[in-house]
Every structure is written in C-alpha cells, then in structure tokens.
Write a structure and sequence with these properties.
- With about 375 residues, this protein is an alpha/beta fold.
- The chain has two domains: about 1-20 and about 205-250 and about 280-369, no CATH class; about 25-205, P-loop containing nucleotide triphosphate hydrolases (Rossmann fold, 3-Layer(aba) Sandwich).
- The protein contains 13 helices and six strands.
- A six-stranded mixed β-sheet has the order 3-2-1-4-6-5, sandwiched between helices.
- A hairpin with a 3-residue loop joins strand 5 (about 185-190) and strand 6.
- Helix 1 (about 1-15) packs across helix 6 (about 210-220) and helix 4 crosses helix 5 (about 145-160).
- The longest helix has 18 residues, at about 110-125.
- The radius of gyration is 22 Å and the shape is elongated.
- The two termini are about 25 Å apart.
- This is G domain-containing protein.
Length: about 375
C-alpha cells in the first residue's frame, strides 16, 4: 500500500541518516574475525529472524552461485512470532534456492532437537559418515535474532545426552542488540563431537535495499537509542492498519475478557491499579491495547490508502494508546516515545499477533530466472 510505503520511506531515511553508526569498532573487528573463520569450520549455521527472513540475512553469506550450499544451514528463529504460512513459504524458497533450512522457537525443546538432528546429519554427511569425528559449526547472524538463545538451548539439550556432564557454560542472552562481544565455543553433541562457535551479531553498515532498514529497526536489530521510537511505532501502526489481522480482536473483550481489566480499575483494587497500571505486559492491558486499536481502525471513516488520512488515523491511535497505557503528560516529557516503545515491545514479543514483514518470493519464478 502506497500510504504504508510513505512511513517506510521516512523511517528508511532516518536509518540512512545514521550512516551505519551501529557498525562500530567492535562490530568491524567481529566481522573480520568471522570472515576469517569461514574456511576453517565444517558448517555455518546462519540464524535469521523468521519475521524478516530477507532483511535479517547475514550479509557476508549472500551468495551468487545457483547451486545450494551444503555447508550452510539457515535457522529461522522466532517462528512463534511469524505468520506460519509465510514461514512455510520461506522455508521452501530457501531450500530450493540456497541451502537447508529449519524454523523454530529457540525456547522450544522440540525445535532445538530438530535443529540438533539436522546439524548432526549434516556433519556426518560432510565427514563421510564417520561416527567419532569432530565437527565445528560457526553460528552467525545479525544482532538480536536470538543466536545466543539458540546456542544455549543446543548446548543444554546436547549435553544431557553427552557422555560427560558438568557445569554448563551459557552465552549471554539479551533483548538488546550487540551484547555478545567475543567468539565462544560450546559443545552441543557427542558421537560425533560437535562444537558450536557463537559469534557477535554483525549488521552491515549498508543494506541491499531501502526496505531493510525500517524492518530491522522494528524488529530490534538496530538499537532503539539510535532512532525515534515514535517513527518506528508509526511504521508499525501503518502496517497494522493496512492488514486484516486486527479484525480478529473484535470479540476479545467480551464480559469475561473484560473482568480482569475492570477488576484492576475498580475501587476495591486501588492498590493493584497502582501496582500494575503502568505494566504494559499485563494481559488486561494487552487486551485493552488490542481493543483500542480495533476500535480506532473499525470506526475510522477516512481512506486508509490515503497517506494524509492514514496519518490522521495514527494520530488518533497514539492518543487512544496514551490513555490505554496510562501515560500521563505530567510524568513524561516525550509522551509519544513512551507510548511508542510500549507498543513496539508488545509487537516484538508477539502480543499483537504473528506478522511476517518480508514476503517470500515465488520459488518457481526465482528458479526460472
């Protein structure tokens, strides 16, 4: 939709204005270290965000060869936050045009087991069926796609079945990009022995296209402190307003659903109101947010396809969300950014639904070209 693209272009201009500021000295050093290890490992495990499989691709691994790379495996992490049907299409596309692919949620034991089995099978294939060989895997990806969560889960599950057990060494897991600074090794399997090297997230200072910047800002690959939260939230609301998922929220707040919200605002629960009203992650607040968005979209009389009209709708939504989030003008100098970051957090944690922002290319057209 052209109106949504206008918000994307504005956020894209803001990202371009950073001139790759996220690519500092530490990231540049990590980039060089990772590239130097590519020829030394048996398998490269590339972690992407399932909501933006194209935008979150690891730049040093972009391929021009038409043949699939048997020494690479793509992991679409955060699949629980993405549209399942789109994830299936992305998996088919990647398998047909690039390499093997697994979609998972790093916090799902079954998904990690599937990944471990895929890694074992690929290492055995590379090592020509040897059972007692040692394989090395390089885990790479851009910031905040969940690499450390993946390696921790692999390490924990793999060590349970290993012959030797002991104190587990964990990678640092954070919701903020750029927490991993060094390359660390973790044993994840025996027979064959498999070691995974966890690497810092590296985000290229230049993107392949202008669409990538806004998507990576929304999903958290670019540090929030570098951009205006209100601009990211406007882009998010433009997406929500242009899609049909909001219609599923129409019946969320029936009498039964409203009970927790009503209880929290009743005189008898005044203490609970003071304790929880500012916590936007509470279920009753999330339901109220969904209801506020549904009400503003469904009652809007303008044309969402028109840029000026869409901007007017988003302004109404900010006002409604300010009230829903209990953000007082007296307590905040920048109300829009406070409201924006609460809304963005709900999106990033899946509380507003499962959205895939990168559409999968048509496999048949790609192969034909």
């Amino acid at each position: 939709m052209a109106a949504t693209e206008a918000f994307s272009r504005r956020l894209s201009a803001a990202v371009r204005g950073l001139s790759g500021a996220w690519y500092g000295r530490h990231m540049a050093a990590a980039d060089r270290a990772i590239r130097s290890r590519f020829p030394l490992v048996d398998l490269v495990l590339e972690v992407r965000d399932a909501r933006v499989p194209a935008a979150s691709a690891f730049a040093p691994l972009r391929r021009r060869s038409p043949e699939p790379d048997r020494r690479r495996l793509v992991v679409l992490n955060k699949a629980d936050l993405a549209d399942p049907s789109e994830t299936e299409r992305w998996m088919a596309y990647i398998k047909q045009t690039s390499c093997s692919c697994v979609a998972l949620n790093a916090h799902s034991r079954e998904g990690i087991k599937e990944l471990l089995n895929a890694v074992r099978a690929r290492i055995r294939e590379i090592k020509l069926g040897e059972s007692d060989c040692t394989g090395t895997v390089l885990l790479v990806g851009i910031p905040n796609v969940g690499k450390s969560a993946v390696v921790n889960a692999m390490h924990q599950i793999g060590r349970i079945g290993a012959a030797e057990k002991g104190k587990l060494k964990h990678a640092i897991v954070s919701s903020h990009p750029g927490e991993t600074r060094d390359i660390s090794g973790y044993k994840v399997a025996s027979h064959p022995n498999i070691y995974v090297l966890d690497t810092p997230g590296v985000l290229s200072p230049v993107f392949v296209n202008d669409e990538s910047g806004p998507l990576l800002a929304l999903t958290g690959a670019i540090k929030d402190s570098m951009l205006q939260g209100s601009e990211i939230a406007q882009f998010l609301l433009a997406i929500l307003n242009s899609r049909e998922e909001y219609k599923e929220w129409e019946n969320l707040n029936h009498v039964g659903d409203m009970s927790s919200f009503g209880h929290a605002t009743s005189p008898s629960s005044h203490h609970n109101k003071r304790q929880y009203a500012s916590d936007h992650t509470q279920d009753f607040v999330v339901k109220a947010v969904r209801q506020a968005l549904f009400d503003t979209i469904s009652s809007f009389k303008g044309a969402v396809a028109n840029g000026n009209e869409l901007r007017r709708l988003i302004e109404c939504q900010f006002a409604s969300l300010q009230e829903t989030f209990r953000v007082s003008a007296r307590l905040s100098k920048d109300i829009h950014n406070v409201v924006a970051m609460k809304l963005i957090n709900l999106y990033r944690t899946g509380r507003l639904g499962r959205y895939t922002l990168d559409r999968a290319p048509d496999v048949r057209k790609e192969i034909a070209s």
